[in-house]
Structure formats: structure tokens, C-alpha cells
Amino acid sequence: MNLIRRAIALTAAAAMAALVTLTVGACSGATTAPGAPVYRAHGVSFDYPAGWQEEDLPASAASRLLWETEFGQGTGADLIAVEAFRLRIPVGAGNLAEASSQLEPTVRHFFAQEGGAMQAGSQQITVGGLPGLRFQGTGTEQDGTFIGNTLLFVFDGTIEYAINCQHTHANAGEMERACGQVMRTFTAPRPPPPPTGTQSYQAHGVSFAYPAALHAGTLTGTVGNGPQLWAASLALDAEDWIGIGADRLSAPVTAARLAAFTPAADNAAGRFFRQVGGVVQAGPQQITVGGLPALQFRGAITFRGIALKVTLAFAFDGTTQYFLYCAHTRAGAGQMERACGQVMRTFKVSKAT
To answer: Exposed (0-12), middle (13-18) or buried (19+): which is 200, by Cβ within 10 Å?
Structure first.
């Protein structure tokens, strides 16, 4: 029963959150027990009980699984599996609470699918000095054998380590001690500190500066009043991010025609907020972005049960409408408002689009 692989496929990073972690054993100062065999590969190391068998399993090229290994007594159901996955968005102490909120229903569902139930979780822990989450539950093998599970998800930036300790009734005590041994001695490379400074975006005839801590990506879906020309995203995590792009309008909009176009922009903003389960709270406000006439709206949405504040702006350059929206959680407000302000202050159109 490989709950880890099925549960982890749906893991995502999310909102910044205040955090008090519980240290498991002596994780921050792991020591190797005398005579215990040590696993060393893929940049990690940990102890496991003497006499246990190790089996490295191939990773699928089509999945986000990087590597996998298993340890056990050779009795089948009693084993410890350790896996590593590549995440699309970094997870750390700051957004661990959101990772927990997304993982918990998934883990609960898969325990139920295996004929058992989640009994404890999620508990915030540290393993090898890294933030993690612990879940405990039960399942049943096809032959009716009871299986107890302790599932650990340990986050190292965009790498996620998953440790599955599973045991039968008969070997519960020995397997729990072995699981504790792996947890106490687990070490992995520490993630590099977040980048500092400023990055420059130059594409599609526009340029602007943005904080280096944001990760550039793609963006799909139109926001404004016409076909989308291009779009990009700048993300701190799954909820704190900036979307920017351009749409083609059927008629040019200038400063002189801004008031006449305002109802159409108002409709576009309302449609955008409704599509994401939100509401416009303020605007339109006439501003300029990169010397272009613009309209700004503010509103609120709820995404995956998390309240987000959103600033949406439309800037007009003839028949090109540039859109910019900045979404942030309460915890990420300061950092993302500064980032949004930096993008708007430095935005320039270098050629006709």
C-alpha cells in the first residue's frame, strides 16, 4: 500500500502562515548509533536497524518522483519507504500550514480507500532541521492484514521527502522504534536562502523590475476585454503572486477615451472577480502605469478556503490592454504589495505591441 505516492501527487505549496514547530527527538543534532548501518545516497543520510534489507527502486521518468528506497526485515508488509519528489513551488516553514491544509484531506481520503482511517494529523514537526508534517492512520491489505502507518512529509524548498513507516500488529513496537531511528538521524542538504535583489523582465515589448524572490512562470486565461496576446506569472507561492499580460482590444483606448471605456473595464473586472469567487470592493480609480492611462480595482476572493486580497489594473496603449493583478494572503501582504508596487513603478512599453 503506497499511500505516499498517491497522496503526494496532489501536494502544493500555499499561503504564508505563522508556525510553531514540534521537534521530533534530537533531529537538529542527529547522531549515528554505534554499529547501525547508514544509508547515504541522493544527498541524504539516515540510520536504519542492523540486519534490515535495502532495496533501491527505479524512479519513473514521467513522474515527479526523483528516487525511492525501501528498508525492511524481509517480511513484506513491515517496511519503511523513503522517497523524494520535485515540487513546482517551494514549501518551507512559512507556508507549511497551507501545505498541511491541502495534504490532510488527501491523506484522509486514501486511508479510507485502503479500508482504514486517519487517526492523527497533521502534526507540524522538524526532521533533520527541516519543516515537516506527520500523519498516522490505518489500512488493510487485500488478505485482511491490518497495517498501521506513520506518514512523514519533509520539505526542503522544492524537494519533498516522504517517509512511510508501515507495520503489522505483530511488529508494531519494533517498526515504531525503527521509524524513530530514521527520523532522528535523517539529514539532507539545507535549502539555500531565498534570493535577494531585483530581477528584470524583458519580453513582449515591455520591461519591469520585480523581486528576485518571486518565481517567473506562465499564465493561462484571459482577464480583460479581448483575445490574450501574452501572459506571465511571478509567484512567491501558490496564493501570493502577480499575473501580468496583454489583451487585444477591438478599438483603441487613450487618455481622452478612458472615461468612455470605464464601463467596459468595470464589467471585465467584475467578471474576473466573479469567476474566481470574489467581489470588487473598490474602483475603478484612474491611475497611470508606465506613463499609460490606467484603471485600478481592488477586491477579495477565496481560493482553496483562503481569503486573498487582489489588486487589478488595466493600462491602455492604443488597442493593447495590459493587465496586472496582484494577489496576496494576509501574511504575505507586505511583501507582495511592495512587489506589486515595484512592477507598476518600473513598467515600460518599449515598442508597439
So the answer is: exposed
Q: Which amino acid is at 24?
A: V
Please determine, for residue 25, whether its predicted confidence score (pLDDT) is greater than 50.
no
The CB-side HSE value for 25 (13 A sphere, CA atoms) comes to 15
Q: Which of 152-156, 235-239, 343-347 has the lowest mean pLDDT?
A: 235-239
Its pTM stands at: 0.54
Contact 290, 315 (CB under 8 A): yes
* pLDDT over 70 at 29, yes or no: no
Separation CA 308–CA 302 (nearest Å): 6
Domains in the chain: ranges and CATH: 3-185 (3.40.1000.10), 198-349 (3.40.1000.10)
As given in the structure block, the three cell numbers for residue 342 are 515595484
Mean pLDDT, to the nearest integer, of 109-134?
89
C-alpha count within 13 angstroms, C-beta hemisphere, residue 325? 25
Smallest Cα–Cα separation from 182: which of 158, 166, 159?
Answer: 166
10 Å Cβ neighbour count for 261?
A: 20
